[in-house]
Amino acid sequence: MYVIMDDKIKINFSLQKLICFVSVLLFLTKLITWYITSSLSVFSDAMESITNIFSGFIGLYSLYISSLPKDHNHPYGHGKIEFISTAIEGFLIFIVGIVIFIKTLMHIKHHINMNINESLLLRLDYGIFLMLFTAIINYSLGFYACKIGNRNGALTLVASGKHLQIDTYSTFGIIIGLILLNITKWIWIDPIISIIFSSFILYTGFKLLRNATAGIMDESDKKLLKKLSFYLNEKRDLYWIDLHHLKIIKYGSAFHVDCHLTVPWFFNVKEANQEVQKLTKLTKKKFGKKVELSVHVDACTDHHCIFCFNNSCQFRKNFFQEKILWTLDKTSYYNNNKSS
Question: Which is the CATH superfamily of the domain at 7-216?
């Protein structure tokens, strides 16, 4: 199927391809480093980098799927594949954290009383510089991927960036361990640093799984709802008397907005539709073309007059008292239902 990609999708796709290429290149670099140093910790880091390769290609595939157009079987598009991809990456990171943690405990149990093997120090200085090189490349690419992913709403790209940054943290831990090991010859330094960084890896994996689950379960994004409520309140039209039951469902980089808009009761269908079109155009101008609005139009009643600031209305039954700000607690579906 031929896919027409907009500029954001093209950028996301190209960056994910770069992540795949760099992941393979750095994995080979770490294998060379292990061959030079004969360091078991470097070998473990190289094996951990295999997950970067798998997650990179999984992310690339999910970006392709999410860019496919809507069809009869997927009327909301294919964007939710990104949540599945993120869940897989989070699971891989979590498993890697568990494996590193268990291997470290086993190492402590069996080797805590052993003296350092001199072969471990073989050309260790070259190994440190090579590992530092991989760490800098990984973190730079991961930081850029997270930045672009957050800007373009690509959760898969953010997950890939987080994965690269996690690999960087573990690599830095190993570098510190190798430096201290080279200076002090204390073999217990390496497992202590490994435990600290494996705990951080476990936390990051859990966080990615949590975010993916929230997306799959259509959990309310309060940050986005607050941003949308504030923006619409700032740009509200004279005839937009009230806005409530506001909901947002994410579909990858796109999202669907449902809301109820209260307009004057004397508006005909054409006039009410014009107000809906204004609201739709305004929202897409701020949040991009991948926003879909489903607006239910309500007719105002007498009690709306007290916060309707259209003073030219000839059907007013009550005096205007105050302008109600459309904050999250006033517009969201949950709070409207709770208060009703």
Answer: Cation efflux protein transmembrane domain (1.20.1510.10)
